[in-house]
Amino acid sequence: MNSKLTSRLFRAALPLLLLASFTAGATALPKESRVPGGIALVPVPGSSDLAPTVQFNAYRVAVVRRDDQWVAVVGIPLAEKPGELKLKVSTPSGTTEVPFRISDKIYRTQHLTIKDQRKVEPDPDDLKRISAETKRSDAALSKFTATEAPALQLISPVEGVRSDSYGSRRVFNGQPRNPHSGMDIAAAKGTPIRSPAAGTVVEAGDFFFNGNTLYIDHGDGLVTMYCHLDTIKVKLGDRVAQGDLLGTVGATGRVTGPHLHWGVALNRAMVDPALFIGAK
Ligand code: ZN
After folding, report:
1. Which pLDDT score is estimated for 9?
2. Residues 224 and 260 sit within 8 Å (Cβ to Cβ)
3. Separation of 183 CA from ligand 1 center, angstroms?
4. CA 156–ligand 1 middle distance (angstroms)
5. Engineering a disulfide at 203: which of 140, 155, 187, 237 sits with its beta carbon 3.0 to 4.6 angstroms away?
6. Is the pLDDT of residue 97 over 90?
7. How far is the CA of 261 from the centre of ligand 1 (A)?
8. Measured in angstroms, how far is the CA atom of residue 163 from the centroid of ligand 1?
9. Cα–ligand 1 centroid distance for 153 (angstroms)
10. Distance from Cα 53 to the centre of ligand 1, integer Å
């Protein structure tokens, strides 16, 4: 075999070699970023054959086995202040606190103009509806369905232009509102939205701010949400596989144009979805 052919074969095989070395590792984990809205990978005690139970802010946290060590995969709420935080770790021999530190992150401010002023200043009936919907949303996002092996990696749910506006402070028609807790992906109305991982549809409906919305429970405290859909193609209780059609991109609810708002909750904290899908 001549050297030119050898090098060509090597180049052809290289992606396969890289893929093999990537998948041969332990559980694929999201990227660590110890800031508000980020994720901390914190080593925790426990015997080799039994995972400890870990809690953060009273929510249960996913735990994976990596390099002969238990690691808590902790979602950090956007509202958390920089400094020391504590995990509660329970094993058969007792409960201990494991501290970890986060640093600050400055998110920018975004000014947006919404044509429908009621979507910025809801009337009393709207407020009743919003309060009921917030309870449903919170119940879906708080789910912790324990699995044998946590699957904490996602693929992007839609082809489109990703904004990096996660975390930005938002001002709608001059009025400050909650910070942006997800990723916006701009795409034409009707673009298919696919499940980023296997899971179960745990909530679906037409919500005041979020329009047609879906929630998927992937297990171990990882729950994803999809807002402003034009159509929903699954129903409550459906099991979906990675890549299955969930619905289509739309412009329902409080929007400035068609896009998918994609939220990712980890132990109830809405974290930056970009940490799960790698660089742009
Ligand atoms: Zn959004």
Report:
1. 53
2. no
3. 6
4. 15
5. 140
6. yes
7. 4
8. 9
9. 21
10. 33
Q: What six digits make up the tokens of 191? A: 């673009």
Distance of alpha carbon 256 from alpha carbon 267, whole angstroms: 30
Q: Quote the ligand 1 centre to 185 CA distance (angstroms).
A: 8
Q: 129 C-alpha vs ligand 1 centroid, how far in Å? A: 20
Say how many Å lie between the CA of residue 121 and the centre of ligand 1.
18
pLDDT at 23 over 50: no
Per the listing, tokens 């909530």 go with: 203
Centre of ligand 1 to C-alpha 159, Å, is 16
For the entire predicted model, the pTM comes to: 0.87
CA nearest 164: which of 147, 146, 183?
183
* CA 274 – ligand 1 centroid, Å: 13
> CA–CA distance from 156 to each of 9, 51, 132, 206 (Å)?
31, 29, 30, 23
Distances (CA, A) of 227 to 117, 210, 222, 224, 258: 19, 5, 17, 10, 10
- Domains of the chain with bracketed CATH: 30-102 (2.60.40.1590), 109-276 (2.70.70.10)
- pLDDT tens digits, residue range 130-161? 999 999 999 999 999 999 888 898 999 998 89
What are the CA-CA distances from residue 186 to residues 110, 163, 177, 193, 262 (Å)?
A: 17, 8, 21, 12, 11
Q: What local confidence, expressed as pLDDT, does residue 24 receive?
A: 37
